[in-house]
Structure formats: C-alpha cells, structure tokens
Design brief:
globular, three-stranded antiparallel sheet, 2 helices
C-alpha cells in the first residue's frame, strides 16, 4: 500500500533538497576560495643556494685590495669548499670591506646580494675575529642598514695597527633578533635566528 504525499509535504521536501544543494555548492566554493587566497598570501619562497662568498677590503688612501674568497660549487656534494686570501693586510691602515654572495652552481650565476639587501630586516652579517686581530665594525653608510635602522652589515671597517694574526668568520644570519643585547653592535651571542652560511679565513697583518 503506497502512502500518499500531500502537495505541501512535497513542496517542503523539494525546498529542503534545494537548500541542501545550494549549501553544498557554497561550501565547495568557499573551500576553493580559501585555498586560492592562502596560496596568494603564503607564496613558496625557496632559499637560494650560496656557493660563493667574496669579501673585498679596500684600503683608504690607496694601496692593494685584499680579497677573501670562499667557493663551494657543489653545495653538499663531495668536493670540499675552498677559501683563499689574496694577501696580507698592512699595518696602520683602515680598510673598507664589502661582502657579496652568489650561487654559481647555475648558469648564468645568480647574485644573491640584492635579495639580502631587499630583505634587510631578515638578514644580518656578523664578523667574529680570533687571535691578535683588531675587531671588525659595521660601515656607517645608510645602505648598510635596514628600514628599522638596524645593521644588515654587508659593509665593514677593519682598522689595523701592529702586526697580527688570527681568523675572521663571516656569518650570514636569517631572521636574527636584531633587538637582542649587543646584536646591533655585531655581537652574535643573542642573535638567535638561522645561519644561512658561515665562512672562516686565516688573516695576517704585516
């Protein structure tokens, strides 16, 4: 025996089915929009491989430039990285240093330095010395600092006095705490963040 459905009941049932269909479509559209929006807000920003670090120190008042060069063209590959120093620093001189970073594992090579400058608030270089070398300080040019007047540190100053030897480690930090104690002065102790690259050179002042 079949049960008869009144016109009102039938219309009510159809209305519920229609509302359910609209709700389902709206949910699908919302999920698609949310996915699209998330992709637009959070783009993938792959970190560039750094294979080459060059630090050129130019003596004020004339003289011979000293070039510090680090190369590791195969990244994590089996070939060991190389470091070279073009010569000895001279006593009683002030040197202006400039550091650049490249990815030479690709052709053509990529200069990463402009990216570091553009994202200055997220980067800072540190210069750690050992032995009898004098300290390295940050250059004072405006473009050596980020929009918050905190150092990026691509430019440095090295003042020599007497004969000395030691090592210089140049470290590039990503997202350091630039407001940490003495971090803005070049002390890495409270910097935290991640190390993009750290390279060490043996230096001599004669």
């Amino acid at each position: 025996m079949k049960t008869k459905i009144s016109t009102n009941q039938f219309n009510l049932k159809m209305k519920k089915m229609k509302n359910l269909k609209i709700t389902t479509l709206a949910l699908v559209a919302l999920l698609a929009f949310s996915s699209c929006t998330k992709d637009e807000i959070e783009p993938v920003n792959e970190e560039e491989l750094i294979t080459t670090v060059t630090a050129v120190f130019t003596p004020q008042g004339g003289g011979t430039n000293i070039t510090l060069l680090y190369k590791d063209l195969d990244g994590d590959g089996p070939t060991a990285a190389t470091t070279t120093v073009s010569g000895d620093f001279v006593q009683n001189k002030t040197y202006d240093g400039a550091v650049t970073f490249k990815n030479e594992a690709v052709n053509p090579s990529v200069d990463i330095t402009p990216e570091i400058i553009a994202e200055g608030v997220d980067h800072q270089l540190f210069y750690e010395k050992t032995g009898t070398l004098n300290a390295f300080t940050y250059g004072t040019a405006t473009n050596n600092f980020d929009v918050n007047s905190k150092p990026v540190g691509l430019q440095s100053v090295f003042k020599t006095t007497v004969a000395a030897t030691g090592t210089l480690t140049i470290t590039l930090k990503h997202e350091p705490n630039k407001s940490g104690v003495n971090v803005a002065a070049g002390d890495m102790t409270n910097a935290a963040g991640n190390t993009d690259i750290a390279v060490k050179f043996n230096l001599t002042v004669k």
